[in-house]
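User: Sequence recovery, please. Input:
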């Protein structure tokens, strides 16, 4: 009889844990945006966004938003190469977040040129690099 209640209790505990992870991801994102925009502490915000992405507990959409915010931070710091790198990570790790990718692409001149040069997206170029 006790075994009958164990499975629902485990499912309920997992649901609570998943909800708590989503809240902490949202809280971290909010804290990062506050640090970036209100306090003007770009390095602090970058640390928060990187922590959020590395934790793997935040929902994918929130992690993509944090990656987009990293692009903005790098642009605010004047580091266009780092912004292009963060943009590349956004496109590779979150290809389903087309709205964020489009917004970031508008901010980085030549971003579409950078993407076109990636060998894994161009079969002929990939074959040439592999000697085929």
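Assistant: Recovered sequence (132 residues):
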């Amino acid at each position: 009889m006790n075994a009958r209640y164990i499975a629902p209790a485990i499912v309920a505990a997992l649901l609570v844990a998943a909800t708590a992870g989503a809240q902490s991801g949202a809280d971290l994102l909010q804290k990062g945006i506050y640090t970036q925009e209100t306090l003007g502490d770009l390095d602090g915000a970058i640390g928060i966004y990187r922590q959020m992405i590395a934790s793997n507990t935040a929902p994918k959409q929130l992690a993509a938003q944090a990656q987009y915010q990293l692009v903005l931070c790098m642009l605010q710091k004047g580091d266009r190469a780092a912004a292009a790198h963060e943009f590349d990570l956004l496109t590779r790790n979150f290809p389903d977040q087309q709205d964020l990718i489009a917004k970031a692409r508008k901010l980085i001149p030549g971003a579409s040129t950078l993407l076109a040069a990636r060998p894994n997206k161009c079969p002929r170029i990939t074959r040439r690099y592999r000697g085929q």
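Residues 75 and 128 are 34 Å apart (CA to CA).
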